Amino acid sequence: MKHIYTDLAVESKEIYNPEKKKEIEGVSVEVADEKNYSVTTVKVLNQKGSQKIRKPLGTYVTIDVPNLDKTDEDLKDEISIAFAKELKALIKEYKKNKILIIGLGNWNISSDSLGPKVIDKVLVTRQYFINYNKEFDETMANVAAISPGVMGLTGIETFDIVKGIVDKIQPDILIAVDALSSRKMDRISTTIQISDVGISPGSGVGNTRAGLTKETLGLPVIAIGIPTVVNAATMVNDTMDLIIHSMKEQAEIGSEFYSLLEGLSKEDKYKLIEEVLSPFMGNVIVTPKDIDVLIDDLSIIVANGLNIAIHPGIDIADVNRYIR
Amino acid sequence: MKHIYTDLAVESKEIYNPEKKKEIEGVSVEVADEKNYSVTTVKVLNQKGSQKIRKPLGTYVTIDVPNLDKTDEDLKDEISIAFAKELKALIKEYKKNKILIIGLGNWNISSDSLGPKVIDKVLVTRQYFINYNKEFDETMANVAAISPGVMGLTGIETFDIVKGIVDKIQPDILIAVDALSSRKMDRISTTIQISDVGISPGSGVGNTRAGLTKETLGLPVIAIGIPTVVNAATMVNDTMDLIIHSMKEQAEIGSEFYSLLEGLSKEDKYKLIEEVLSPFMGNVIVTPKDIDVLIDDLSIIVANGLNIAIHPGIDIADVNRYIR
Amino acid sequence: MKHIYTDLAVESKEIYNPEKKKEIEGVSVEVADEKNYSVTTVKVLNQKGSQKIRKPLGTYVTIDVPNLDKTDEDLKDEISIAFAKELKALIKEYKKNKILIIGLGNWNISSDSLGPKVIDKVLVTRQYFINYNKEFDETMANVAAISPGVMGLTGIETFDIVKGIVDKIQPDILIAVDALSSRKMDRISTTIQISDVGISPGSGVGNTRAGLTKETLGLPVIAIGIPTVVNAATMVNDTMDLIIHSMKEQAEIGSEFYSLLEGLSKEDKYKLIEEVLSPFMGNVIVTPKDIDVLIDDLSIIVANGLNIAIHPGIDIADVNRYIR
Amino acid sequence: MKHIYTDLAVESKEIYNPEKKKEIEGVSVEVADEKNYSVTTVKVLNQKGSQKIRKPLGTYVTIDVPNLDKTDEDLKDEISIAFAKELKALIKEYKKNKILIIGLGNWNISSDSLGPKVIDKVLVTRQYFINYNKEFDETMANVAAISPGVMGLTGIETFDIVKGIVDKIQPDILIAVDALSSRKMDRISTTIQISDVGISPGSGVGNTRAGLTKETLGLPVIAIGIPTVVNAATMVNDTMDLIIHSMKEQAEIGSEFYSLLEGLSKEDKYKLIEEVLSPFMGNVIVTPKDIDVLIDDLSIIVANGLNIAIHPGIDIADVNRYIR
After folding, report:
1. pTM of the shown model
2. Quick check: D67 contacting A, CB < 8 Å?
3. Could you say which architecture CATH assigns to the domain B9-233+284-323?
4. Which of C23, C94, C139, D152 is 20 to 30 Å from A195 by CA-CA measure?
5. What average pLDDT score do residues C93-111 get?
6. Which of C257, C269, C297 to mutate to test the interface with D (most CBs of D within 10 A)?
7. Interface test with B, best of C168, C170, C205, C310 (most B CBs within 10 A)
């Protein structure tokens, strides 16, 4: 059976528990609400939980900021700091003197360029450690950063490039930044997910590419992602639900059709929509019109947050300072 | 009543005559099929026709190239030439020694950057006429070109910038290039529209901005457009039609709902969808994932075509030569 | 007689008074030293002074920041604020509700792209005044901003584009930002000049282009400039002086040659070098290797300073906030 | 003793044999003149020759095109083809089914961005070989391509990134593209050098970085370079020579100074100039004003030439076709 595609753990959960607040076995969920944002921590505790929500074992922290796509500069700083705090907590236990940051995605495709744009802006310091022949510094972590591109640009698998670098420079920990896809339009550029399970490539048909995980690379892999697109089929699906729901409420009409759709499993319905759509739109995305500008803003928030979280000497007062 | 939004004259027609081949009064349509493309010439002949298809009087030439979004370099050259031929025919009657080319749209938004990208690539010659104090040249037209940006970037209405330049340099004719929106996904980056009616800003609520037309600027205005986005509501609407159609064919189910929807006018149905969508997605577009790359390719085709059409000394052999 | 080319008033002065501290008639000079920078205010008081230093009547404020090309983020903020303070003082007397900011220069040439990059980053507000039909706001000035490009890109004189816009939107004051050329390598990207005399195009041979000045545009024109290049002939000239000086000090050798060069007027010597250089390097500049990166940094400093100086509601705490 | 810095073998030779046409032992030189360009083939045959011109053993082909910096489109095509021909001849003997192309340099510094810009434009095919599980194709070589950035951007040595990729994908041959520095202003953007000795990092003080050579990587390394900058000290040196030469011819003056300078070895003189210059200009380059535009043009020529030289199925008629 085909998996409804989403990169967000918090959405996997919602698929199974849309309204009912019942807990899933093997999965713990905690929500902390702040004034401007909420933090949801999903822990996949065992194989049972992993199968239920189709996500690997580990911790998934989601920061939801409903107004992050607006141009409120104070909010952006607040979220950089909140993101840094969550990231710090997640990597607390790991050794992290030497850090490699990887910006995944295609820099020629706006909606996929979050990773490369963060790499452009993050503070890179490893060259100073080498030039001054230093092993350790009290205020700075030893940070290298690179955007490996995508196979369509380089002809080389991302894993091969990253693995080669990891073998050479032997970091303690890897942080990968990537643009995600979401099931919900209102999560686009308003949600940041941090997890300690690494990156698994799209589990689509016949995809045998190696992921970036502790198993494949031999070191802890932290994944940071922000949804930038919604799949077109997803959007049609959600809109149809809304329309039918709204028509049903207004009158007794449509109930036959609605019953039929209700009779289908969610995944069958999604498959039906995808089949209808696929002939005439292969590679279509649904995205905000100003996604280019949003990605610029988000890459600053993430780069600021990374700088605060990983360098002992950079704090709140320095937000926006080390951004190139 | 709200107008279903589309920038393509050929689509206005389709709305009213989806299958029936009946002619619309006051509108003539001619189609010429070539191996790799077809050219549809819609002429809005009088006020009756204008009201029917909600487009100003004038000629609208649409070049449809189903495979233009593929990377076939020979096809791209062929279309540059075909486009140049149609453009030449459309401006045959006009004086065109001095040409001003305007690239409309926001260069920071990929799907809206066609105009500015064409301006980057088109051959500009007016400076030589000024420096050598020349009035006329046998091989070169006198061409100026500028991208005025959009009001969100400059704080200035496009019309005010263009009108100021027109008054100063007094061109014979203005050619405006713009990204369009289409009703159909399969037109995205596969259709070029050329018209002699200028550019009218979106006729949405309370939009009192001045268009770029013969009436407002005092010179002929040729508009060149390529659809780069589909409105999200449009896509949902079209997909729902397809799904219901497909379900209806398969069984007797859904007929009640379908009848209801059929009972609504097309525009009422569209309005319903838009109402449902609007709360949670204001500014969403549906676009190919690689729109950035497509726009680059299309801007070369248009710039090549413009160079061939307006400079007597540039012909087919020079395609790709004067592109920066 | 050919004028040794420089855009900086403070350098014109130095040409005539290299070491001697004697005052020039008709020119007042004040220097204020701060810890990290100094501010020199040159006032050209009358025609005599104007002829002496070959600059129009008016005030020229130069902020010299020896370490501005280093990556010290605190210094950058400090200079944004110092720049804002000087700019505010210079425009104190003018009406400035409606401001038009012009970014001069060619965005395709790194060393010439300061103006366009500032325009990309400055806060533009005029659209809100129009959309909300407002005449005045207590916290925000009414700001429009545009980069007109250069004649080689558009085929249109900068003056024609700017004059057209000024006529349409009728600002109270115009602020033009431009990259300058300097006589001294150590001024590159370390000096900001603000003046109230507008922009006069290079006074070279046969240059009849209109400047952007109160006379040509009919409103006060503030010019903001930062040197980004040194002319190659200038650099050779200065280095030769240093070498001969150094050799002369070390021994009695070279004195004959030195005497000869000393016998030449400075301008004749410069002309000689230019003649020798010109056959084999027409359009050469001397610039820091990382000028692209420096221009990015400087454009942030200038945009921040502009935002602070012209919007009543933006102050020091907001530095870096309204930068796109 | 410090080496006068130049990346071009043909200039090393000129240093020692400025006018005299005498041959250097261990070095063979052949010149072929075409109408629009000349091809100089320098072969360093043994250790003696290598020491004389301070270049590793191997073949250095230099294509000189005096007008390559002009906008003559026919010439550009001609040079793409000439370059492809020379490159083909140089790699004739090597196995070259699988090719890795490396674009060296810093994409944020215009004058250093030739390599990355070529990588953006070159045809990459390795992904098709992998997706279709193919070992060999008659019309296409198996090409991967990447720009590793520079240590200041990534914190990682170029060698480490390249070596990691070479180990993973095991190409038959590596082609590295880089911007060079020249001793002569008139070589900037008019000379292409191809060699089979790989890339050795600047042999400056204490530089212990590993080069990209057959010895370090274990496969043949072809280096393609175009000079984009002249060192500032070099330019002062050359200009002073010209000035003194010109003054000496005109009169008997300056001879004392000239004799002194003549008494110094060339390298001592250069060192003197560098000492004088260094305090006030660390990192200065001399470059054409429009280097950004020139690099764009040159990267197309190189990418076209590479495509023609390495893919059996791409020939002259396809020039400009596979450029992105």
Report:
1. 0.86
2. no
3. 3-Layer(aba) Sandwich (3.40)
4. D152
5. 94
6. C257
7. C168
Mean pLDDT on B173-199: 91
C151-171 pLDDT, tens digit per residue, is 999 999 999 999 999 999 999
- Checking if the pLDDT of D73 tops 50, the result is yes
Q: Using 50, 70 and 90 to split pLDDT, how confident is the model at C316?
A: low
Q: What's the confidence (pLDDT) of residue A233?
A: 72
Enumerate neighbours of A (3 or more CB pairs within 8 A): B, C, D
Question: Boundaries of CATH 3.40.50.1450 in chain A?
Answer: 9-233+284-323
Distance CA B193, CA C127 (A): 30
pLDDT digits over B154-181, tens only?
Answer: 999 999 999 999 999 999 999 999 999 8
Confidence (pLDDT) at D233: 72
Question: Which neighbouring-strand residues pair with B143?
Answer: B99
Q: Between chains, do B110 and A253 touch, taking CB under 8 Å as contact?
A: no
Helix (H, G, I), strand (E, B) or coil at B245: helix
Residue pairs spanning C and D at CB distance below 8 A: 122
Please report the pLDDT score of residue D319 as a whole number: 52
Contact status, residue C226 vs residue C179, Cβ threshold 8 Å: yes
Whether residue B256 and residue A258 make contact (CB cut-off 8 A), yes or no, is: no
CA distance B57 to A110: 38
| C-alpha to C-alpha distance for D58 and D43, rounded to whole angstroms | 6
* Res C154: pLDDT: 96
